[in-house]
Amino acid sequence: MRRMRLRSLFRAPAVALMLCTAATAAEPPVGVFLFYPQEGGAPTSADCEALVREVKPSVEKAEAWRWGRAPMGADLEFYLFLDRDRIEPTYAAEGDYDSGTVRWRETRGGETGFDLVPDDHPEVTIKGSVQTRPGSPVVAVTLRGVPSSEGKRDRTSYFCRFEDEIRA
């Protein structure tokens, strides 16, 4: 009987530690995001809010673009789908390195690392990260060491959160 109580005493802190760790572990930033098309650096929150007002993005429109069906009357707009096991932009072309299976790594300070195995290049693993800030609609996605005709390059693209975005 005494042995059982001792085991219970040692088990309780371990269970509490596991629960605290699980509760504070950050989830990957999954959802649907609107591509920010302007060049010249990261957009501001106001830039993203203006783009969202102008484009009026929705998950329904994003899904249509995802499957190659441009919605009636829609301007040319692009989206990024971040799922638990895939990264899929609606603008990827054959041979690109930005669409494929993803393995999420840990999140630190608003930056979540990942390993991407592109659909068209299964022998390659691209390391990258997604950066977000609480309260900001701006999302930055960086792919590191992307092969190009000029050697390997890092590539950062910016996206905007919108109200209708889904969370997996």
Commentary on this structure:
- With 168 residues, this protein is α+β, with helices and mostly antiparallel strands.
- The chain has one domain.
- The chain is 25% helix and 32% strand.
- The protein has three helices and eight strands.
- It has helices at 2-24, 45-55, 59-66, and strands at residues 31-35, 79-82, 86-89, 100-108, 111-118, 126-132, 138-146, 153-160.
- An eight-stranded antiparallel β-barrel has the order 1-2-3-4-5-6-7-8.
- Strand 4 (100-108) and strand 5 (111-118) form a beta hairpin.
- The N and C termini lie far apart (46 Å).
Radius of gyration: 20 Å
Number of domains: 1
H/E series: HEHHEEEEEEE
What spatial form do the alpha-carbon principal axes imply?
globular
Number of helices: 3
What class would the helix/strand composition place it in? alpha+beta
| Order of strands across the main sheet | 1-2-3-4-5-6-7-8
**Average pLDDT metric:** 82
